[in-house]
Amino acid sequence: MKVKEVIIKPVSKAKFSGISGHSRTVTVLEGAQLGQDGLYRTGLTPEEEKEFAEKLGLPVNTLSRTNGLFWGSVLKLRLPNDKPFRLNVSSPLDEIKYKVLLNRSDVANNQLELAKNPQAQFFIEDKESQAQVEEIAMNYLFEATELFMNMTAEIRKGYIKLYNRKGADDVSDTVIKSELFKQVNKDPKKFIDYCKNPDIDIRIKIEDMLENGLLRKKSNYYHFQEEVIGNSIEACIAFFKDVRNQSINLAAEQDLRVKKKGK
Question: What b/e readout covers 103-113, taking b as 16+ CB neighbours within 10 angstroms?
């Protein structure tokens, strides 16, 4: 009989000093979870309850969704936090465990579901969904690279400031190109989001003003001269976009030009 193996992997955790905080430990899942209806989420149909009970040599009602003794106590899953866990679902007991895992809120059914379930501690490896995840990542990288290649040196210099790069105006175009491309490869989607943000020019201007001391942050508020602009970058963007504040906006742009010219 062909063995069907299911692989359950832990979601990557933050590491400290290069060593995972969860190395060589296990998470014990107390069997099936209770649903809002007060019944255990076993993933078994009534027919399967009887079928698996028979295969395991258990009393006929043992696998009932109301049986807390079995689902809440007997069927425990010990999953390593630092390496894959394998189930041989040609085994009746392992197949039951697999069905239970599919119905747990802390286990994503595949890699694609991880994005929708940030609370998941584990995920079930699935080659098809893994390929789809990798395809999405490749598409982001291709799109981001194309956007990057079509940028002028001046635009790249503005974008690198969004990554907390100080002194970009005094660095060669070659250095800026290299540094920005590293950011593109590190997080293509973030770069794409920047490129498609209709307010990106204002955001870059704000970074410029902060670096040149024209926009100052006091406590939780940003100030331009004596004017309070907002309590966040988003609030500052809204301020400079507001037609009622265009005189201040123009004054800020003029001060920025003078400041940068005098360097």
Answer: bbeebbbbbbe
Q: Kindly report the CA angle at 153 between 151 and 155, in degrees rounded to 5?
A: 60
CATH level 2 (architecture), domain 202-263: 2-Layer Sandwich (3.30)
pTM of the model: 0.59
CA 14 to CA 58: how far, in whole Å?
42
| Cα-based distances in Å from 3 to 86, 87, 91, 161 | 12, 10, 9, 54
Q: Rounded to the nearest 5 degrees, what angle is found at the Cα of 154, between the Cα atoms of 150 and 160? A: 85
Within the chain, what is the greatest distance between any pair of CA atoms? 87
Return the structure tokens found at 68: 């807390």
Residue 227 CA to residue 224 CA, distance in Å, equals 5
Residue appearing with tokens 């390929």: 131
Angle at 60 between CA 56 and CA 53, to 5 degrees: 20
Does residue 41 sit in helix, strand or coil?
A: coil
Kindly tell me if the per-residue pLDDT of 16 is higher than 80: no
pLDDT of residue 263: 62
Domain boundaries, the chain: 5-125, 202-263
Q: At what angle do helices 153-160 and 200-211 cross, to 10 degrees?
A: 70
pLDDT above 80 for 23: no
Q: What counts of helices (H) and strands (E) characterise the chain?
A: 11, 11
Q: Which residues contact 179 (CB under 8 A, 6 or more apart)?
A: 160, 163, 165
Q: Once rounded to an integer, what is the mean pLDDT over residues 116-135? A: 81
